[in-house]
Write a structure and sequence with these properties.
The complex is a heterodimer of chains A (about 375) and B (about 325). By secondary structure, chain A is mainly alpha-helical. Chain A contains 18 helices and no strands. Classes of the chains: A mainly alpha (about 375), B alpha/beta (about 325).
């Protein structure tokens, strides 16, 4: 462990990048700091440095590399690193790391499912969503009692249920097929209420998930419910009120409000909402910001930000694990069919506004 | 008439002449120490069909008539799950030894009741779990035991059993109703893997369970058609997956500190090299099971582990149902 733990703790508390006087662990802390400010190439480099240092922090480094690859849209690479992290964590009985890696792999499955081809029973998309659900159940089961991560995992479980329900909204489906959506809705509300007093950030994410679900399934009634819950302040100022300091959920909510304004033909207001969402996401969320820029360009009839999209896609991904390791129990997860990820986030180049909205709704869990 | 290889032959009655009952009859030619002398089914057509094929068998329409047959010493039970409570009192008080098809019960409470009533009667009670008798899984367990004696530790067990039925095919007949079946694929195909995991590793601690009905998580009123369970057994991480659909397959993988063992119903492999090969079918396993039943009675056994092992397995399955259902919120707000 580093000897300057107190300094590291102070820096983290004050939001400064900490300096850790320990090779691998310092690189991992650097990696997370870079990851959370959206600098994925640097984060990947630091995590990989920690990986190569081989100082006993392998599962931590592999988890970071898996998260970086996920946010770069490199599903196959992300899975390799996360399965590796899970194998190391299982061998070390590092239950916390196993829970985190399971949840991270669930996110990969969830995000990749929408791009995995046509839906239907026994399809790759269905298999990915089921794997996501399974992994989130494992993540939740491994959390210690009272864990601060519980609300966050609850939100992911609700989002996964919502995707399972939305996935069922194929032509001709009705009634029973909407069950998962109803339950996702129930779980998001439940999570929102349960977290409000103790974990305001998770409460805000649950609310943002409700907004996002309303957009994914184009359900105006759900949107109205979510807006009403977003606070009394919204009635007075037109702006949602959130409980916590994290502005990412506000970005999601503003983007969804833009979607509904656009659906109502209120173009100037939709563009204003997109600008508000752009500001809320901030530079720490470059993919989200670029998606909003692309949407604004489409709504304004301006040229698409092709250069920026190309630059985003060209961000360097970390190398894969030299000899990928997969625990026997995780073998079936290694065989899941993932969508092609040679050109990450293909929806950014969608030729129409509908395609961009659909991509935006798919991309963010 | 089936030929015996000498020694005392244990006379059996068979209750239930549908598919599973017929499998038992088909296995008889391979038995060396047991034989069926009578059968029982309320369905007249099934009785006629079976006695036409096996004229030496006496056929009864009721369990009361069968248990009154003095030549019958042991009874094999292959009935739909929901029928057992209607005849268990007669069977348990008859003094006949019983070999019941799995599951031990539809619920843990029902399983306990069956065991307790049989214990009061004093006769032997076994459950029929063919995978425990299948040559490949018997060899897998022996191999694991040999490796453990060399100091091996088991890191993981991954097992799957998919029946390969086409999508949308629901459970048929009595298996299609929750009350009669007691559960879906977890209690049916899943029971085999849960039992096999107990057989190989001992008691399991449940971590997580996902039950599915089509593409959606199953609700309490659903008969699930797929399930995945995560558990710990000793030092091992365990994942069990089963389903009515999917690509038809069955396999068990054991990751040990001295190598990887893999088995299916055709053989056993160690680090990818075949170490055992056997016939895939069930007939030998079912015949061995009937002989094992006869041997246990002849030895005077009354407390065979195989039935007591079913209680932890039943408890595990019930906890899995409970956990999966607990994790599904009910209805919309």
């Amino acid at each position: 462990l580093p000897t300057n733990l107190a300094e590291v703790a102070d820096a983290l508390r004050e939001g400064r990048p900490p300096t850790v006087d320990h090779g691998a662990l310092g690189a991992i802390v650097d990696g997370w700091a870079a990851y959370f400010r959206g600098d994925l190439p640097h984060a990947g480099a630091r995590f990989h440095h920690a990986w190569e240092a081989d100082e006993g922090w392998g599962s931590w480094a592999a988890l970071g590399l898996g998260k970086v690859a996920t946010d770069l849209g490199r599903w196959g690479l992300a899975r390799s690193w996360l399965l590796h992290a899970m194998a190391l964590a299982r061998a070390d009985m590092d239950v916390s790391r196993l829970a985190a890696a399971s949840g991270a792999l669930a996110e990969v499955c969830c995000r990749a499912a929408d791009m995995a081809g046509a839906p239907g029973p026994d399809t790759p998309a269905a298999a990915l969503l089921r794997a996501a659900h399974e992994l989130l159940e494992l993540d939740a089961a491994l959390l210690p009692v009272g864990s601060l991560d519980r609300r966050r995992v609850e939100n992911y479980r609700a989002v996964c249920l919502g995707r399972l329900g939305a996935y069922r909204l194929t032509p001709g489906s009705a009634g029973r097929e909407l069950r998962a959506l109803r339950e996702a809705h129930a779980r998001m509300w439940s999570s929102h209420h349960a977290a409000e007093g103790v974990d305001p950030v998770s409460a805000d994410y649950a609310l943002a998930s409700l907004f996002m679900l309303s957009m994914r399934i184009a359900d105006r009634r759900l949107y109205r419910h979510a807006r009403a819950r977003a606070g009394a302040r919204a009635q007075a100022t037109g702006e949602p009120s959130l409980a916590g300091p994290d502005r990412y959920p506000l970005g999601v909510i503003q983007a969804v409000r833009a979607f509904w304004r656009w659906r109502d033909g209120q173009l100037p207001d939709a563009i204003a909402r997109l600008e508000a969402a752009h500001e809320a996401f901030g530079p720490d969320a470059p993919l989200e910001q670029l998606a909003l820029v692309a949407l604004q360009a489409r709504l304004r009839g301006a040229p698409a930000p092709d250069e920026a999209i190309a630059a985003l896609r060209a961000r360097p991904a970390p190398p894969g694990p030299g000899s990928p390791r997969v625990a026997a129990v995780d073998g079936p997860l290694a065989k899941l069919v993932l969508p092609d990820d040679e050109c990450p986030f293909p929806w950014l180049s969608a030729p129409d506004v509908d395609g961009l909205w659909a991509g935006f709704a798919q991309a963010f869990v | 008439m089936w030929q015996r290889k000498g020694g005392a032959v244990f006379n059996l009655g068979l209750v239930g002449l549908a598919n599973q009952g017929k499998e038992h009859l088909n296995a008889m030619p391979r038995c060396t120490r047991a034989r069926f002398v009578a059968v029982c089914d309320s369905n007249e057509a099934l009785r006629a069909e079976v006695t036409a094929a096996h004229p030496s068998l006496r056929a009864y329409a009721t369990v009361e008539e069968l248990v009154a047959d003095p030549e019958v010493r042991g009874i094999v039970l292959a009935l739909p799950h929901h029928v057992y409570p209607t005849c268990w009192g007669v069977l348990a008080s008859s003094g006949k030894h019983l070999l019941k098809e799995k599951p031990l019960g539809r619920t843990l409470d029902e399983a306990r009741l069956f065991v307790e009533e049989m214990a009061r009667g004093g006769a032997l009670f076994l459950t029929a779990i063919q995978r425990r008798e299948h040559p490949s899984y018997v060899r897998l367990r022996e191999l694991l035991s040999e490796l453990r004696q060399q100091g091996a530790r088991v890191h993981g067990l991954e097992a799957s059993l998919f029946l390969g039925f086409p999508p949308g095919r629901g459970a048929q007949g009595w298996r299609g109703a929750f009350d009669s079946a007691g559960g879906g694929v977890l209690l049916d195909a899943g029971y085999h893997l849960v039992d096999l995991a107990h057989f190989l590793l001992g008691s399991l601690d449940l971590l997580a369970a996902s039950l599915w009905c089509g593409v959606e998580p199953a609700r309490p009123e659903d008969l699930e058609d797929a399930a995945v369970i995560h558990a710990r057994g000793g030092d091992a991480w365990v994942r069990l997956a089963f389903g009515v659909g999917g690509v038809k397959q069955e396999r068990v993988v054991l990751d040990t500190s001295l190598g990887m063992l893999e088995a299916d119903r055709e053989g056993v492999w160690r680090d990818g090299h075949e170490v055992f090969r056997c016939a895939r079918d069930w007939q030998q396993a079912m015949a061995d099971q009937l002989d094992h039943f006869a041997d246990a009675v002849q030895r005077g056994e009354r407390n065979e582990p195989v039935v007591w092992d079913q209680l932890p397995a039943m408890a595990f399955i019930e906890r899995a149902y409970g956990l999966a259902r607990l994790n599904m919120p009910g209805g919309s707000p």
